[in-house]
Design goal:
It is a single chain. The protein is mainly alpha-helical. The chain is built from eight helices and two strands; from the N terminus they run H-H-E-E-H-H-H-H-H-H. The protein has a two-stranded antiparallel sheet with strand order 1-2. Helix 7 crosses helix 8. The radius of gyration is 34 Å and the shape is rod-shaped. The chain starts with a helix and ends with a helix.
Length: about 140
């Protein structure tokens, strides 16, 4: 007997009951029904959890790779104060990549400020970053 026969023979049969009976029918000595849906659902939930964790991990890695986070890490490594960081950002403008380049190339420091207070702080930062090379740059 086909599972479709009750649907065709009895017009007052609830199709959801028939579908439920079909889903939960025993096959041989095994019970196959809601377990398949539960297994598929569990695999789906597991995939969603792995996808979410991986996406958050990738986002965290991308945030670590931004120029602003690089500037923060370099500033911490060289023990720059907030005032010194602000001054470097001021001279770099809005581009965070330019602010990072101050840590690499001492030539970028030439002619940045004519004010004596700024010049003293810039020379202090330059000496901390480049040591004797900064002194040679200023002399030459």
């Amino acid at each position: 007997m086909s599972w479709l026969t009750p649907l065709l023979a009895a017009p007052k049969v609830n199709p959801f009951e028939v579908a439920s009976e079909y889903i939960n029918r025993p096959i041989g000595d095994r019970f196959v029904g809601g377990w398949w849906f539960a297994a598929i659902g569990a695999v789906g939930v597991l995939w969603l959890a792995i996808y979410t964790v991986d996406r958050r991990r990738r986002q965290a890695e991308q945030e670590k790779l931004s120029p602003s986070s690089l500037f923060e890490q370099l500033s911490q490594a060289h023990e720059l104060t907030a005032e010194e960081q602000a001054m470097m950002r001021k001279f770099a403008g809005t581009d965070e990549t330019e602010a990072c380049k101050f840590f690499v190339d001492p030539r970028r420091w030439r002619g940045l400020s004519t004010q004596p207070a700024d010049r003293l702080m810039l020379e202090s930062i330059q000496t901390r970053l480049f040591g004797a090379l900064a002194l040679l740059e200023r002399a030459g």
